[in-house]
Design goal:
The complex is a heterodimer of chains A (148) and B (405). Chain A is 52% helix and 17% strand. Chain A is of the alpha/beta class. Chain A is globular and about 45 Å long. The chains are: A alpha/beta (148), B alpha/beta (405).
């Protein structure tokens, strides 16, 4: 990395302290309506977040709008989270992908990393502030990626 | 004793002058056969026979008593004392030779028989050891198939419980935030009331979901203390479907057709294991077909009573079973699934459970069309309480025991 790039990166890191997270649209995908609704309500204050109740619905939304981050549940009927995210990557390669797993599923984790370059895993049982932190990191990644 | 030289051409002969000398000679030589006069000095022939019969080392030695005492009661006395034969004097040498020969032959056959018998006993013992090892292995097998099924389901069940648990924890946090707004004076209680009530409603629904899952799990695995009981099979099917609910997703539809049916004598927990295996197989067959891009996904479950029997069928419109493996599907360990995907035990165990209930299970399948499993169970199974359906091999063990004894 050149000196110029390094200093650009420093500027970026500096910038990250003062980000309006609401400027970056986020898509949350979960087949459980109650989980989806309560998560959306919890994150509504900090992020500009929308929900989709199925992989099909989410793919339609991704076609119509550029999301900075897509967060998907791993366990869904028909298609699992990792499979959905690799489809989503084809439509929107720059969108940062995050997977929520409700249980330890090593196979899903390996698939997710190898096939669709997942940026973060979020444990379903993690406290809300930890989830928020992961989402912020994903937005940081989106900013860095689009600036570089 | 005059005849000893006449026998010497055919046998090796030792002689003694009286009963006492005879006994000590018999003890040292251990002859194949004893010829004894009845009237002898010191010890009579009858006394000698009694001594031989009471000596564990000699008791099998054949004895022929030769005697001038020819009354029937003497003969009976001699035979009662344990002599194999009683020959009155004077006798014909040929007759004596024939009798000696046949006694020796009998002795040889007896010895061979005893040897074969002990070989048989050893073989039987080995067989019984193998059988008990087999029983042990079978019990392990049943257990591991149960564990495999539970393991296969546990991730799904955890998900089913985790989701409402997360919803509850989310709603509590939302309630907290909402109330904080009121206490900070950022919003009035009346403004927040609607969303508070809404979140409480969500939490209640989630609690009900968890309760329902736990209830189905308990129903599914409830063990009747006696094992057997009078049960309605549809209760078992319903609780099994509840447990498997997360496996169906939106693409697999369950159609229940419960006709009028009688309660049956059965171990419902074991039948649940059968229902679970059949329904899971149907799910896998449908998923395999869906992966090829076909949009099918129906499972029909039918229950009806007929002529004192109950018939349960599980039909799917999945992949179907290839013709060439159809007669192997009930074999233990037979599986067409990849390593780690299935133990190959499900249908084998199901077969044994149904058999232990004196019922029948059969399969009809056509590739690309679907598969139907049909179970027929007697409503009242005679002798049912004498068998442990959890240990179907027990019945076979009894059969084997009978045929070899």
């Amino acid at each position: 990395m050149t000196m110029k790039k390094m200093s650009e990166l420093n500027d970026l890191m500096f910038m990250l302290d003062d980000i309006d997270y609401k400027k970056y649209p986020i898509l949350l995908v979960d087949d459980d309506p109650t989980v989806l609704e309560t998560m959306l309500s919890l994150f509504a204050d900090s992020f500009s977040i929308e929900g989709a109740g199925s992989a099909d619905e989410a793919l339609e939304l991704i076609k119509t709008r550029d999301y900075a981050v897509c967060i998907s549940d791993q366990r869904m009927p028909n298609v699992n989270g990792a499979e959905f995210l690799s489809l989503a990557k084809m439509i929107s390669p720059t969108m940062i992908r995050v997977l929520i797993t409700g249980y330890t599923d090593l196979e899903a984790a390996i698939d997710a990393i190898n096939e669709c370059e997942i940026f973060r895993f979020i444990k379903k049982s993690a406290p809300t502030d930890e989830k928020e932190e992961r989402i912020k990191e994903a937005i940081h990644q989106y900013i860095i990626q689009s600036e570089l | 004793m005059l005849h000893t030289h006449l026998l010497a051409s055919d046998y090796e002969v030792s002689t003694a002058r009286d009963g006492v000398e005879g006994l000590s000679l018999i003890r040292s030589v251990k002859p194949d056969l004893v010829l004894a006069d009845n009237i002898m000095p010191k010890k009579s022939g009858i006394e000698l026979v009694k001594d031989i019969r009471s000596d564990p080392e000699l008791q099998d030695t054949p004895v022929i008593i030769l005697s001038a005492l020819t009354e029937a009661n003497h003969k009976i006395q001699g035979l009662n004392a344990g002599a194999d034969d009683y020959l009155p004097k004077p006798f014909d040498l040929h007759e004596l030779k024939v009798r000696i020969h046949s006694l020796l032959l009998k002795k040889r056959y007896e010895r061979e028989l005893a040897e074969k018998n002990s070989l048989l006993e050893e073989a039987l013992e080995r067989q019984q050891t193998t059988l008990s090892e087999l029983k042990e292995a079978h019990a392990q097998l049943v257990h591991s198939s149960k564990l495999a099924a539970i393991g296969q389901l546990s991730a799904g069940i955890a998900h089913e419980v985790n989701n409402p648990a997360l919803s509850i924890s989310n709603t509590l946090e939302l309630l907290e935030r909402s109330l904080a707004k009121v206490s900070d004076g950022k919003a009035s209680f009346d403004e927040e009331l609607a969303s508070l009530m809404h979140f409480i409603g969500l939490a209640k629904t989630s609690v009900a979901r968890i309760r329902h899952i736990v209830e189905s799990l308990t129903k599914f695995s409830r063990k009747n203390r006696e094992g057997m009981g009078t049960v309605d099979v549809t209760d078992g099917i319903d609780s099994t479907l509840d447990i498997l609910n997360h496996q169906f997703g939106e693409t697999i539809h369950i159609h229940r057709h419960y006709g009028t049916h009688d309660p049956i004598e059965a171990d419902l927990q074991q039948l649940n294991q059968v229902f679970m295996n059949l329904i899971l197989n149907a799910v896998h067959a449908i998923q395999a077909k869906q992966q090829l891009g076909e949009s099918t996904g129906n499972i029909w479950i039918t229950v009806k009573s007929q002529d004192g029997d109950i018939t349960i069928s599980v039909r799917d419109d999945g992949m179907g079973i290839p013709h060439e493996v159809q007669d192997k599907i009930f074999d233990p360990f037979f599986t067409t699934k990849d390593v780690g995907q299935g133990s190959g035990l499900g249908l084998g165990i199901s077969y044994q459970i149904v058999e232990a209930h004196h019922g029948e299970i059969s399969c009809a399948s056509e590739e690309q069309i679907g598969t139907t499993f049909t179970i027929r169970l007697p409503c009242k199974a005679p002798l049912m309480d004498q068998h442990d359906p959890g240990d179907p091999i027990d019945n076979k063990a009894n059969d084997l025991g009978r045929s070899t004894s």
